[in-house]
Amino acid sequence: MELLIYNEEEMNRLGILIAKHLKGDEIIYLSGELGAGKTTLVRGIMRGLNYQDKVTSPTFTLMNLYSSHPPVFHFDFYRLGPGEIEELGLQDYLGRGGISMIEWPEIAGEELPREALQIKIELMADDYDRERRVIITGQGEKYCRLIEELMSDAHFGN
């Protein structure tokens, strides 16, 4: 699934749309360069889960826990080296019935489960003020079904 997102409000709406289809026990990988909109998308997902508190990037804290229903574990691996992922106790969070959202999953390499919703946000022409291309793919039956639901529900961008 590929979308063009033209502004921050549309990125929030995409997050709200994704949240509508989350039931818990999902893993979402968020890729894209610094400033691409990963945390903005997470804010939209949290808004869609009716979470009212502040949502920030866990770049320095490594993980934010949001007490929503289901709970959300928001990780940011940007400052970690590949060997440091294991020290986080990541496996304690995955599969606990919550939603695990992981920014910079490529840093973890093979340490993460393959089955996940993968969201890649690309800047257009290296311009932070222009639209973004959002590519959503999934590994595993559950995530392929989720993408089908999203495709039938998406009505913005292009």
Name its key features.
single chain; 158 residues; alpha/beta; Rossmann fold; seven-stranded mixed β-sheet; 3 helices; 29% strand
Structural summary, described in words:
Helix content is about 25%, strand content about 30%. The protein is α/β, with parallel strands linked by helices and about 160 residues long. The chain has one domain (about 1-155): P-loop containing nucleotide triphosphate hydrolases (Rossmann fold, 3-Layer(aba) Sandwich), CATH 3.40.50.300. A seven-stranded mixed sheet has the order 1-7-6-2-5-4-3. α1 crosses α2. The protein is globular and about 40 Å long.
Quick take:
The chain is an alpha/beta fold and 158 residues long. The protein has helices at residues 8-20, 38-48, 141-153, and strands at residues 2-5, 26-31, 63-66, 72-76, 99-103, 116-124, 127-139. It has a seven-stranded mixed beta sheet.
Q: Supply Rg.
A: 15 Å
> Could you say which overall geometry the principal axes of the C-alpha atoms support?
globular
Summed over residues and divided by their number, the pLDDT gives a mean of 87
How much of the polypeptide forms β-strand, as a percent range?
Answer: 25-35%
Order of strands, widest sheet: 1-7-6-2-5-4-3
